[in-house]
Amino acid sequence: DAGITQSPRHKVTETGTPVTLRCHQTENHRYMYWYRQDPGHGLRLIHYSYGVKDTDKGEVSDGYSVSRSKTEDFLLTLESATSSQTSVYFCAISDYRGRAPYEQYFGPGTRLTVT
Amino acid sequence: QQPVQSPQAVILREGEDAVINCSSSKALYSVHWYRQKHGEAPVFLMILLKGGEQKGHDKISASFNEKKQQSSLYLTASQLSYSGTYFCGTEIRRGEAAGNKLTFGGGTRVLVKP
C-alpha cells in the first residue's frame, strides 16, 4: 500500500470555524490531490498540487484553500466551515512514468461533519 | 463534465458476468477504473489509454472505444470480493505538467450474492 495518511480521520466542527485537514505521503510523489465524496456525486476534485508551492483549483474549489510547503504534506483549509462542506475528504497522490499516466493512490479519508 | 456510468447498480450471483459502462461527451486521453468498498478508500484497478487498449486485473478486464469515447469494465465469473462501488475517472488531456486531473463518474454499485 502507498504510504498516505490523513489527519484527523474524523472531525465534528461548528459552522463558521476554520478547519485544516492534513495529507502526508512517504512516496515522494510529485502530484497530490484533494477530493470530496458525497452520495450521488462520486469523487470531485477540490484542489491539486503539481509540486511544492504549485497548486491549482479543481471543479469544486470555492470555500477551500490549500498549501504545500513540503513534498510530503498537502493541507486543505476550510476558512469558515459551512454545513454544505460536510463530506468525506480523500487525499490522493500520483506520479508519472515517462509518457504513461500514473494511477492515483488514495488515503484513508477524513469524515468531516459541520453542525 | 462528469462522465456517465451505467448501470447505477447491479446485483449478481457468484459466477455471473456484468458490464459497467463509462461514457464521456469529450475526447478522452485515458480512463482510470477504481473500486471502493463501503467505508474504505477507492482502490486502483487499471488504466486504459486511447487506442482501444484492453487490460485485465484478475478476472476483471476493460476496454476503451475511442470512437465512442466510452470505456467498459467487464466483471467475469464474479466473486463475492467484487462487491463494491466502481468508479471511472476520465482524463481529457495528457496532464504531464500538472498531473492527471481526473473527473469521476457517479459510480456503479455492484453486489455479488452467494
In brief, what are we looking at here?
The complex is a heterodimer of chains A (115) and B (114). With 115 residues, chain A is mostly beta strands.
Our Rg estimate of chain B from Cα atoms comes to 14 Å
Describe the global form of chain B.
Answer: globular
Alpha carbon gap, first and last residue of chain A: 34 Å
Order of helices and strands of chain A: EEEEEEEEEEE
Secondary structure tally, helices of chain A: 0
- How far apart the termini of chain B lie comes to 37 Å
Principal-axes shape call of chain A: globular
Tell me the total number of β-strands of chain B: 11
Beta-strand fraction estimate of chain A? over 45%
- Parts with pLDDT < 50 across at least 5 consecutive residues of chain B: none
| Helix and strand element order of chain B | EEEEEEEEEEE
Structural class of chain B: mainly beta
| Main pleated-sheet profile of chain A | 7 strands, mixed
SS elements, strand count of chain A? 11
Biggest interface, CB < 8 A = A-B, 30 and 29 residues
Average pLDDT of chain A works out at 93
Largest beta sheet of chain B, briefly? 6 strands, mixed
Mean pLDDT across the residues of chain B is 89
Describe the structure.
By secondary structure, chain A is mainly beta. Chain A has strands at residues 4-7, 10-13, 19-25, 31-38, 42-51, 54-57, 64-70, 73-78, 87-94, 105-106, 110-114. In chain A, strands 2, 4, 5, 6, 9, 10 and 11 form a seven-stranded mixed beta sheet that branches. Chain A is globular and about 45 Å long. Chain B is mainly β and 114 residues long. Helix content of chain B is 0%, strand content 52%. Chain B is built from no helices and eleven strands. The A-B interface holds A 30-31, 33, 35, 40-45, 48-50, 56, 58-59, 90, 94, 96, 99-109 and B 2, 29-30, 32, 34, 40-44, 47, 49, 87, 89, 91, 94-107.
